[in-house]
Amino acid sequence: MIRVTVFGENHHEKTHKVVSDIYPKGMHTCIADALNTDKEIKATTVTQDQHEHGLTEKKLAETDVLTWWGHAIHDKVENAVVDRVQKRVLEGMGLIVLHSGHHAKIFRRLLGTSCDLNWREAGEKERLWICNPGHPIVQGIDKPYFELQNEEMYGEPFGIPTPDEQIFISWFQGGEVFRSGATWKRGNGKIFYFRPGHETYPTYHDKTVQLVIRNGVKWAKPEGKYPLGCPHVPADKAPEKIVVTGGSVH
Amino acid sequence: MIRVTVFGENHHEKTHKVVSDIYPKGMHTCIADALNTDKEIKATTVTQDQHEHGLTEKKLAETDVLTWWGHAIHDKVENAVVDRVQKRVLEGMGLIVLHSGHHAKIFRRLLGTSCDLNWREAGEKERLWICNPGHPIVQGIDKPYFELQNEEMYGEPFGIPTPDEQIFISWFQGGEVFRSGATWKRGNGKIFYFRPGHETYPTYHDKTVQLVIRNGVKWAKPEGKYPLGCPHVPADKAPEKIVVTGGSVH
Amino acid sequence: MIRVTVFGENHHEKTHKVVSDIYPKGMHTCIADALNTDKEIKATTVTQDQHEHGLTEKKLAETDVLTWWGHAIHDKVENAVVDRVQKRVLEGMGLIVLHSGHHAKIFRRLLGTSCDLNWREAGEKERLWICNPGHPIVQGIDKPYFELQNEEMYGEPFGIPTPDEQIFISWFQGGEVFRSGATWKRGNGKIFYFRPGHETYPTYHDKTVQLVIRNGVKWAKPEGKYPLGCPHVPADKAPEKIVVTGGSVH
Amino acid sequence: MIRVTVFGENHHEKTHKVVSDIYPKGMHTCIADALNTDKEIKATTVTQDQHEHGLTEKKLAETDVLTWWGHAIHDKVENAVVDRVQKRVLEGMGLIVLHSGHHAKIFRRLLGTSCDLNWREAGEKERLWICNPGHPIVQGIDKPYFELQNEEMYGEPFGIPTPDEQIFISWFQGGEVFRSGATWKRGNGKIFYFRPGHETYPTYHDKTVQLVIRNGVKWAKPEGKYPLGCPHVPADKAPEKIVVTGGSVH
Question: Is residue D35 part of a domain?
């Protein structure tokens, strides 16, 4: 059983009727429901308005994969919680960053770059092409691409380090392209960025989008633990016998 | 002319006689002097005890490559200065991180990982093997390796993302190994981590170490600028004609 | 059940008594036996002296992961078989390349580089350090390193493209270092190079070496299929409506 | 002065009037002329119909960067010449692979993958987006993209290993996307793949295409030499004193 925590900003759902009409129980609930259709996954939700954003030490210790959606109030996420999530990713927890999560503190923290991009909210068509048809994240998609009839445009340049693997590249009706699915590893944590999911369109109700997130969760699950810290190895514990020489500042 | 700013923590030089005996004018001055033996380089120094650590907007705007040595008081580096340096690296400024700079805020910020390692201060022998004899950073070293008779040991695991290129790997007398020279790119900035340089040994007086840092500076110099920001592309400025549909949160 | 085919050159076992004394049934049998202690794995062997080296279309179609050990007669491996194995790796079959397989045609074919290295056969001590303690390939090793008392030395520079992940780095008694465990992906196939295994020492009887190969097999198993070929997309099948213009050479 | 050798297949120029009308002196001459407008570059041409395809040991020894265009008769390129070019790239010679060179023996040899893609020859519009505006290869392009009004379509999936850096991604009028500019390093040689250049359109007369190839040449020029070979290090030449033990096959 893969324990997934779905983080939702849960802001636009409360402030924009167009969003609450599409996601009456919140985007996070829609995503968690889609994950829970899979018997290998047990997804629960937390939201930014909860104490510690719901991401307590205990909750994170019981999380195998965290999904993250935020947009309007990234800067309100507490740095102490970002530290905590980063630590867990480095140890091995998987992280799926969705759509406008490209500017989430945790994503920028782990990648080290601006994660900037160009954008346009025009409800245009997006076509996501698969770059490796054999990758576990795209299994079950029976075409070389899938389409969303209405999406926000994100365009290159996308301010990211070179991905370990390119999973999707998007074609937009308005003429742009974007690296819409990409993976990285940081410490022992697997990270998957997946572009679609603007809140004014019903993207998380789309069956292929749901499939990709489920696949992503399975791909990102932990496979071992990387302990943090800088152990001192005293001279008398060195694998080979040595004699200490020179000065010391320790 | 490559304009280099040499950042020095300048702490142990004032608090430990063993260090000030080896570097009476500070490690930063020793490094800058070594760089200035090259006619293509103009190196100046800043120290952590200066206002804004000497790294003002103006100074950074006039810096092509920044070298960074710190150890004991990383946590005293102001976050606003780290933000500023990160921005310049993403735009294209080169960064050479030296020795205990592995735990500098700016290095961890750009790599996104713990940068943890194992260590021992025993003055043992370090032998640095070259992994790509054709790389610009190792030109002029006429052997497959070079040695330092007394160095601190840093051992694997080194908590870094996979480097773009592995330049050196160290063999330590006490039995450990370490990825002692490695490069990454973040935004348009080139980053080179170079391990040697413990303050209680005369490492920065070593001719090969000086050569490597000079080579590193030339390798890391800017070759173009990556502007930051997330431009909005209005629908009527899209490369292809589109009609706006759907709701908006903007 | 993971179907593993263990390829053995089976040459030194027949020509050198020191080798046949250590591996009376051949190195390939020793490796296969070690794999078959795991209930998730079903390993069989093929040898270079068989017709098509045992690697028929049928055999490869039924292989999830191929392990490869060769040394003295790499050049005798038929190019048609190398083509066939490459195709299967690109589709998704895993490949574990062992020791002197660094110069196997299939390894050089997939990596594109010389795979050259320095070497010495002196039965010296090798200590393999783990670079990511959380990686699935090193699970079950309860120390930061493991040792082999007698091994051939392989030293840097190792003529490989930058690995996707560094798993082990070796320290040798004689003073060298080597990237002893490394992974790459080609097409959808996962590749793991694992250095130890000189034929004059009992390396494949070592419990930790056996564990690493078993872990490697599980890590490398296929997770999807990447079909090869260059499909033509006729203009009237383009996702967007277009009108053909300009000349043609087809 | 950068010495560039422009390799041209020179086949369609002789067999298709539409091609010879656009490139009366051959595509290779058009490319070489565009390179020679830069005072830092000295470009000469060779063609596949020459003895050893013009790529003799002597010619390659005097080549800093090789550009490669081929399409119809890749399989007629002699393997001995491919070996020779590969060796020079691994040593440090730059390589620019153009358009249908994606299936050239040398490109597949260096990357190890199929280099397959989807395609359509319909003279449609291609828009190449810049992924890193600071990269030396795109300097001088004053917009976030450039366009070619008539080009062949190449679509994802593109069967390549993950590039070291993504330079361009193309948007096609017919609905596809493609990783149109990408870099890799093999040995010490820098490789740049640049997609545009179908022979039935005047692509190599385009000023931006010419600029990109010139920039690519400057980016790919050698910066050091990686010598090939597997040196034996006798036990008495080991950096550390060792005593030989165990059997030998050498």
Answer: yes
